[in-house]
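[job 4471] stage=fold_predict status=RUNNING
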Amino acid sequence: MVDEQMLGGSVRPELLKQAFVRQHANRRLGSVRTRNRSEVRGSTRKLYRQKGTGNARRGSSRSNQARGGGHGHSKKPHSWRLEMPKKMRRLANRNALLAKAVDGEIKLVDHLSFDQPSTKNFAQLLAKLEIDRTCLLALADTRDNAARSAVNLEQVGLTRIDRLSAFDLLNHRYLVAEKQALSAWIDQVASPSKPGDEG
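[job 4471] inference complete, writing structure tokens
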């Protein structure tokens, strides 16, 4: 069904891992922030003398042992973003699809349409396709009745066919797509003059 050379020739685990880690890291906000003892409010006065009280020695109320004090190792905003060459990103997207094909985890249908949104009917379709784990539904239009039928199922992920990425493919056990739409996507991303899968 698929020319393996168009999808990278063979499965490349190292490339797929690098693409997966990159996309996972790029989704992190890195906006967490806590205050250290120099940033919290409070007096810097030593609370009591060093010796003779019977208590443990301590300094100001800003220390990290005190309630409301600063953090000993405060967290600061940090970018987790990782870079990857564009050609490697595109190859990883195609290679992830090849990995699914090799493992027999691609379920193709001739035409996926519903007269009206129905979660029950879509669940029955998954049962007929023998899908018992998570699956990624890739459609040309994510606003049609098929997409609305799948959106309430916890184990189903939804994406547009032209936005398939290695992260989404590897994060789901099965891929469900229409034959014509998937073939068109493969032809597009395999052509060097048509970018289409930035990742």
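[job 4471] summary: The domain at 4-13+82-190 is CATH 3.40.1370.10 (Ribosomal Protein L4; Chain: A;).
[job 4471] exit 0
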